[in-house]
Amino acid sequence: MKHSRRCFAPPLLALLTGLVGLSACSDTESATDAGTDSGMDAGPDSGTDAGMDSGVDSGVDAGLSEWRIFITNTVQNADLGGLDGADQLCVTQASDAGLEGDFKAWLSTRSLSVVDRLIHADGPYVLVDGTLVANDWDDLVDGSIQAPINLDANGELRGGDTWTGTLATGASYTTDDCAGFTSGSDGTALCGTSASTSATWTQNITPVCSTGLRLYCIEQ
């Protein structure tokens, strides 16, 4: 009988140990599954929510409360290098004056108007000294403005006419545009006058392309 106990006790102990081990392995797998599932579920949702929230919030926080307009301190014929060249002139003069932000020229060609290429602000347009020009985009293109656009990026008073190619409604003047404002010789284009608050601020006369005029620059 003593010999019999020595033979069968170890298998019984091994069986019990195996059962305990099996139970522990099952617990580990359950913990692993739960951790993986919860990690997978929490990761994408929390990341997406956080990304969407931060993106929307940062966009709102970075938005402008007013949009500045100035007139260039230089004059040039209608060979502006097209719309891109005119926009770059505005960017350069704003940067030289220490104005942060993006600026584009108030300039239309026969094929592309300011209505389609500029931001339609839902807040006020102002000169660089804070003088109100228009309450919002709709006010800017309703046929009149509240103050003449006659200050340059440094706040210096400037006079004279400006190349615009743009009607008072913001639409393109389609008769001629000095070859898309790339010609300083042949043809004519529409201009505005910086002393005006009526429709003639942007829609005045059509000088020949060799005439030296200014530009309006508007923040985006």
Task: Describe the secondary-structure layout.
Elements: H1 2-61, E1 67-71, H2 82-96, E2 103-105, H3 114-117, E3 125-126, E4 132-134, H4 137-140, E5 161-163, H5 178-181, E6 191-193, E7 214-219
Parallel strand pairs: 1-3, 5-7
Antiparallel strand pairs: 1-7, 2-7, 3-4, 5-6
Can you characterise this structure?
The chain has 220 residues and is α/β, with parallel strands linked by helices. The chain folds into two domains: 63 residues; 153 residues, Mannose-Binding Protein A, subunit A (Mannose-Binding Protein A, Chain A), CATH 3.10.100.10. It contains five helices and seven strands. Strands 1, 2, 3, 4, 5, 6 and 7 form a seven-stranded mixed sheet that branches. Strand 3 and strand 4 form a beta hairpin. It is globular and about 40 Å long. The termini are far apart.
